[in-house]
Design brief:
alpha+beta, 4 helices, globular
Length: about 160
């Protein structure tokens, strides 16, 4: 019985290692597409979900939706965020839970002109390292149209607005 359990544990570890090997390269490719920097494994850092969730203490939030291809409006929105508060940050995507968050020097390291398929799950978060503000970009297709839902949290970033 013990031999069977050990064999299952070894098989599970091998399966996990294959997963990591395959998807880590996909993750790095995604990060290189959504940033303006050359990303490598050494730039990834672990941040627990508890740390992430308890960090943003402000309940202030801004939420709006734009067409995905309206990158000029998104760029203007990022300009507002930069003026309100900028600093070292993390980029969080669905792969981050497995491999770690990407450390960036500031919002200027994010590629606002990313393509719809550059991140496989359609969800990107940028979290200031002091955990005071967070931006979530949720992009999806609905009735043959591509949308980008923008949510900003925190005392500073919640003040930014999408311009009409």
């Amino acid at each position: 019985m013990v031999v069977g359990i050990k064999k299952i544990q070894v098989m599970e570890k091998q399966k996990h290692n294959l997963y990591q090997k395959r998807y880590l390269q996909d993750y790095l490719k995604e990060l290189n597409s959504i940033t303006n920097m050359e990303v490598n494994v050494g730039m990834l850092e672990s941040l627990t979900e508890d740390e992430r969730l308890k960090g943003i203490v402000s309940k202030k939030v801004f939420k709006d939706k734009i067409l995905f291809h309206d990158k000029e409006n998104l760029l203007l929105f990022f300009g507002q965020l930069l003026k309100l508060k900028n600093g070292k940050a993390y980029i969080y995507t669905t792969y981050s839970k497995e491999f770690g968050l990407l450390k960036i020097n500031g919002l200027e390291d994010f590629n606002v002109n990313f393509n719809f398929n550059d991140e496989h799950a359609g969800l990107i978060s940028i979290i200031l390292r002091d955990l005071s503000n967070e931006l979530t970009l949720d992009f999806y297709e609905e009735e043959d149209e591509y949308y980008l839902e923008v949510q900003s949290y925190g005392d500073d970033w919640s003040k930014a607005k999408i311009l009409d």
